[in-house]
Amino acid sequence: MLRAMVVDDEAPARSELAYLLDEVGLAEVAAEASSVREAIEKLKDVHIDLIFLDVNMPEVNGMQFADALDKLKNPPAVVFVTAYSEYAADAFGVNAIDYLVKPVETERLKQALIKVNQHFSALHKLTSNERIPVEKNGKKILINTEKIHYVMAKDDYSYIFTEDDRYLSTISLAQLENRLGSQGFFRAHRRYLVNLAYVIEVEPVSGSTLLLTLRGEEDKIPVSRRRVSSIKKALGL
Predict the structure, then answer these.
(1) pTM recorded for the entire structure
(2) Packing angle between helix 62-69 and helix 36-43, nearest 10 degrees?
């Protein structure tokens, strides 16, 4: 499930798009912002795969923001949502995935989300051999991300669990979420990042939460209450 941010200076426009996204079901709204400045602040705390971005906004406009995002190492995908059709050429000049003109229709939004998923699938093929540096017995080791079952936060560091071992990484959980979020990893809890490919059982527990059983792992991974709906969608439940 894609984690989206809606950036628009008009609250009704944000609400309408959030409603449509919930209806389509291919992305969840993880954050909203009424300005580029607010969006930048929220990007520091929340992992975002996709930004729905208006063009005309106060102070910094959407095109300037998209251009800045495009220069990042792992930028979120951008889909423009605006009342003006004349900026479409400029939008693709900053590598936007799509350009939607208000009022947005459900089917057109679905097409845009399919394009975004195709974009991330292509990226995943390019990065599936990415390796994460870890430490074990005083040695530095590189682990292929596809071998990682889950990650657990340990202060500013992380423990990385594979089928047969546990490793220490000096990369924080938040940083790993940013790197692995497009590769099928899901932030199930503030302390846990899970590779959904290894989830074999989902167990409801008291408090409207869940426990995940991963293939090859004895310990079960808790899902925080606010993430239950999102992980069910991500798993197709």
Answers:
(1) 0.58
(2) 30
With beta carbons less than 8 A apart as the criterion, state whether 52 and 5 touch: yes
Which of 149, 151, 126 is closest to 215 using CA atoms? 149
Per-residue pLDDT of the chain (237 residues; tens, 9 = 90+): 789 999 999 999 999 999 999 999 889 999 999 999 999 999 888 889 999 999 988 888 899 999 999 888 778 999 999 998 888 888 888 889 999 999 999 999 999 999 998 888 776 665 556 788 998 888 899 998 889 999 999 888 999 999 889 999 999 998 898 888 878 899 999 999 999 989 999 999 887 899 999 988 988 999 999 889 888 888 877
- Nearest partner of 161 among 136, 184, 181, 178, judged by Cα: 136
- Chain-centroid distance, C-alpha 56: 25
Segment (H or E) for 144 = strand 139-144
